[in-house]
């Protein structure tokens, strides 16, 4: 999977990987060969090697990186809210948790449990009555040619947004959950047929 490889390139090196990089570079391996062997970027390999040659250590400084804004309990609460109500927004989650965090933090916590914000699958509830109405409509237009169809404008072809918010409902779901979960399918009644 290309996405997994890309994410791995930006995660932190483990102690084992740092030691392996130093050993391979000391043995005379090229940076490109070491990067391919440990599945990391060449920049990460060079930085690890430079840290070793300058300071004599390859360990990370303790406390480096951003401090956590949420506790583990708040992280679980964020995930639970998205699982209970798939259409909950990030601002609603942030208000409910009560911690001053940016929306990207909420998205990151949900991505850690493989929940992504997607557009819901829209399903038309085709009842027997709908089928009966559609059949004559289709049969009356079955002999139309391209010229006839060019005169028809379908109202659901394009979506135009003049402002910043498109008011589109989004749902939190895992990959492959498009049709399985009832929370990720929005049902609506079709428009009146002409």
TrEMBL record:
<feature type="domain" description="Transposase Tc1-like">
    <location>
        <begin position="75"/>
        <end position="140"/>
    </location>
</feature>
<dbReference type="Pfam" id="PF01498">
    <property type="entry name" value="HTH_Tnp_Tc3_2"/>
</dbReference>
<protein>
    <submittedName>
        <fullName>Transposable element Tcb1 transposase</fullName>
    </submittedName>
</protein>
<dbReference type="GO" id="GO:0003677">
    <property type="term" value="F:DNA binding"/>
</dbReference>
<dbReference type="InterPro" id="IPR002492">
    <property type="entry name" value="Transposase_Tc1-like"/>
</dbReference>
<dbReference type="GO" id="GO:0006313">
    <property type="term" value="P:DNA transposition"/>
</dbReference>
<dbReference type="GO" id="GO:0015074">
    <property type="term" value="P:DNA integration"/>
</dbReference>
<dbReference type="InterPro" id="IPR036397">
    <property type="entry name" value="RNaseH_sf"/>
</dbReference>
């Amino acid at each position: 999977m290309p996405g997994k490889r890309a994410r791995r390139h930006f995660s932190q090196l483990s102690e084992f990987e740092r030691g392996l990089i130093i050993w391979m570079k000391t043995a005379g391996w090229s940076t490109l060969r070491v990067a391919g062997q440990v599945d990391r970027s060449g920049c990460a390999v060079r930085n690890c090697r430079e840290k070793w040659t300058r300071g004599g250590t390859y360990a990370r400084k303790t406390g480096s990186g951003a401090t956590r804004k949420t506790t583990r309990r708040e992280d679980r609460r964020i995930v639970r809210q998205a699982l209970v109500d798939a259409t909950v927004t990030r601002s609603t989650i942030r208000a409910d948790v009560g911690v001053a965090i940016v929306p990207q933090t909420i998205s990151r916590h949900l991505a850690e449990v493989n929940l992504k914000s997607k557009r819901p699958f829209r399903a038309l509830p085709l009842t027997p009555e709908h089928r009966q109405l559609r059949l004559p409509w289709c049969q009356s237009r079955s002999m139309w040619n391209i010229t006839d169809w060019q005169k028809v404008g379908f109202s659901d072809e394009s979506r135009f947004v003049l402002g910043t918010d498109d008011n589109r409902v989004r749902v939190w779901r895992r990959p492959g959950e498009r049709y399985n979960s009832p929370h990720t399918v929005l049902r609506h009644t079709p428009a009146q047929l002409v």
